Amino acid sequence: MNYTKKYKLKKPEPFENVLVTDLNENMDIVDEELSKISASQTEGTQQLAMHVEDSMPHTYVDNGVKYRWGFRTVNGEPQFIYEEVL
Questions:
Q1: Model pLDDT for residues 29-76, shown as the tens digit of each residue
Q2: What is the distance between the alpha carbons of residues 57 and 62, in angstroms, rounded to a whole number?
Q3: What's the predicted TM-score (pTM) here?
Q4: Could you give the C-alpha distances from 28 to 3, 7, 52, 54, in angstroms and in order?
Q5: Of 47, 63, 68, 80, which sees the most CB atoms within 10 A?
Q6: What ranges make up the beta strands (E) of 1-86?
């Protein structure tokens, strides 16, 4: 029996019998890994939506003073906007 490098899925040799239990174990591993990817993508999508909704999602510090900043357009013209965080 061979195994895949990354997820250690069972890979029977051509001369070996395939066991349903081995297939089921492989499917459980694949299902778990896909669930992790799906959860990660959902979280990333939510973070992106929050970022896009916030007009000033970024921060920076200048001489100990914290600011938040972002971009917007007014009449088609881009503007850099910022404000001090109190």
A1: 999 999 999 888 998 899 899 988 998 999 999 999 999 999 999 999
A2: 17
A3: 0.54
A4: 15, 11, 36, 39
A5: 68
A6: 2-3, 10-11, 58-62, 65-74, 77-84
